[in-house]
Write a structure and sequence with these properties.
With 207 residues, the protein is of the alpha+beta class. It has five helices and six strands.
């Protein structure tokens, strides 16, 4: 071996040594290999654990999916039931509004019958008292009919003006001092239906 060949070999060894020093992973890998040898048995034991966790996760996903399916089914059924209930209620409400006056009109028909009989009696009778009695009976029957259906005549004469019930149309001199500022006459009667004003009383106030 000549001198040049020896020098070349030395240079190669120095270059290899320098590369190993420049790459810290080389020494770390060598250290890690020596101090932490791969345990094949531990790796084999870890595989079933991973599979068990995957199976557990899949089971949970399946359980959640089943729960969502059940909840969605319940929601769809409740939505359908509510829609049917809404349609049924709307139909019942429309039927009620349409037929609400039926019972009232049925009870009103006898009053019409009495009026027709009174008109025929007036044509063939000359007895004024009998005619007046017949008209009075019809009027009383009609008043009873309205009362039975919740319609009540509003009180007004002699009372102070109540704008919730009365409508003052004019003022006149009071016939007495105690009637000043009070209702002295009723031009048109007012009525309540189940305590609700359906027509205001038109009144005259004394001053």
């Amino acid at each position: 071996m000549n001198f040049e060949h020896m020098m070349t070999k030395k240079k190669d060894e120095h270059k290899k040594h320098d590369k190993e020093n420049l790459n810290p992973n080389t020494k770390y890998n060598e250290y890690n290999s020596q101090n932490n040898p791969v345990n094949e048995q531990d790796s084999q034991e870890a595989i079933p654990v991973i599979f068990d966790k995957e199976t557990e996760l899949e089971n949970k996903i399946a359980e959640i999916t089943a729960s969502l399916t059940v909840a969605n089914d319940k929601y769809l059924r409740l939505s359908a039931e509510f829609d049917n209930f809404r349609k049924r209620t709307l139909k019942e409400k429309m039927d009620l509004m349409k037929n609400a006056s039926e019972s009232v009109m049925v009870n009103f028909l006898p009053v019409i019958d009495d009026v027709e009989r009174a008109m025929k009696a007036i044509e063939i009778s000359d007895n004024l008292e009998t005619t007046k009695e017949g008209i009075t009976l019809i009027y009383n029957k009609f008043k009873e009919f309205t009362k039975n259906n919740g319609v009540v005549e509003m009180k007004a004469n002699g009372l102070e003006l109540n704008t919730d019930h009365h409508e003052a149309i004019t003022k006149i001199p009071a016939p007495s001092d105690d009637l000043k500022g009070k209702i002295v006459d009723v031009v048109q009667k007012g009525y309540l239906l189940n305590e609700k004003v359906i027509r205001f009383a038109k009144v005259v106030i004394g001053e």
